[in-house]
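Training component of the fellowship. As part of building independent skills, the fellow (R.M.) carried out the full modelling exercise for a liganded target. The chosen ligand was adenosine-5'-triphosphate. The inputs are recorded below so that the supervisory panel can assess the work.
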Amino acid sequence: SKFVVGLTGGIGSGKTTVANLFAAEGVALVDADIVAREVVAPGSKGLEAIVTHFGAEILTPEGELDRAKLRQRIFSHPKEREWLNQLLHPMIRQEMLAQVEKATSAYVIMVVPLLFENGLDRLVNRTLVVDISPELQINRTVKRDNVDASQVNNIISSQCSRSEKLARADDIIDNQGEISTLKREVLALHQRYLQLSGTDNA
Ligand code: ATP
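Fellow's submitted model of the complex:
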């Protein structure tokens, strides 16, 4: 089976930016956020189960999952949240692994914002953490999303801490500098992963 690198990092750290640099080298990406939407797309088993549980009022008029409504329904109901996680987490896991096996590149980058929080590091051969300071996380996210610094701060607090992520990382990319520096770091890691995946498959 395939060599998989789990790419993670806090909000606004640069996961998407880094993933796109690997993709430019021909590396296949499996994105947990995209998979999480696929498993509840119209016609999916996931959406069917959610409608059976919460009722059809959980759908938009177009028949899509109303995410805002679902968030409301689970917000102060830990049991409902738990039910939803037990439904979706195995589906997401299974679909991510299926996409990994379909990939044809030498190795695969799995982009998972909550890699450690959700225990998905168990699915990968190696973990790569994109690291920036909380100050830069706030600056870049505020600039990108036009949101309040306090909102970003709340999200940072809800995620696994910078020090814990760094302690659990096999590899770390420092993304506090220029994009040109980032590109060099990615190219070096790409060479390393090509070597590791070759050894792994031999
Ligand atoms: P999220 O978890 O919130 O989806 P992310 O980890 O995927 O975020 P990106 O969207 O890649 O992060 O980056 C956050 C913002 O910072 C983007 O607007 C991106 O263009 C910018 N950015 C990324 N790296 C750098 C850098 N080295 N210098 C300046 N800006 C950067």
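The panel noted the following from the submitted structure. Strands lie at 3-8, 28-31, 107-111, 126-131, 171-174. The domain at 1-27+107-197 is CATH 3.40.50.300 (Rossmann fold).
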